[in-house]
Write a structure and sequence with these properties.
This protein is mainly alpha-helical. The protein contains eight helices and no strands. Helix 2 runs antiparallel to helix 3. The chain is flat and about 50 Å long.
Length: about 160
């Protein structure tokens, strides 16, 4: 049992709950961008021996979560539909520009990490920004924490 993880959860969970309940949209967006960056860091470290993911691309995707409520809602779908093909193009350009030092496996690990972590975490600030949410975000966060605890203790 890692005492460092337990103490950080005991300290971090109440802080996140307070910020979700009392924070405004921009603060919540920044917090979830930081959480996404920390999650991607863990994800990339898990694949460190098998692949060399394009780390900077993942951190850029995490940072874009902080801009969710700055982009007008009517343009959000257009922005997302432009960013996904653009990110795939940038990842394949990374292969070309590095003379195949970055391979398709590295791109796959990177793109899956972007789709798995920042894309899903992006929905939490969107839920938080809804008018009639009634702490839906807090329920989602508690469910995720419970799921994580089950996964950790089932080993």
């Amino acid at each position: 049992m890692d005492i460092k993880r337990i103490t950080s959860a005991l300290i971090g969970f109440p802080i996140v709950v307070i910020l979700l309940v009392f924070g405004n949209n921009y603060i919540v967006d920044i917090i979830f961008a930081i959480v996404a960056a920390m999650s991607l860091h863990e994800y990339f470290n898990a694949f460190k021996e098998k692949a060399k993911p394009v780390i900077w691309m993942g951190y850029v995707a995490s940072a874009l979560i902080a801009l969710i409520h700055i982009i007008p809602a009517e343009h959000a779908m257009t922005v997302v539909s432009v960013l996904i093909p653009l990110s795939i193009t940038i990842l394949f350009l990374q292969v070309i520009l590095t003379n195949m030092k970055t391979n398709v496996k590295d791109i796959a690990v990177t793109f899956f990490g972007i789709c798995y972590i920042p894309l899903f975490i992006m929905f939490l600030p969107l839920i938080n920004g809804m008018e009639k949410r009634k702490n839906t975000n807090l329920v989602c966060f508690c469910m995720c924490m419970g799921n994580g605890c089950i996964c950790i203790y089932s080993r």
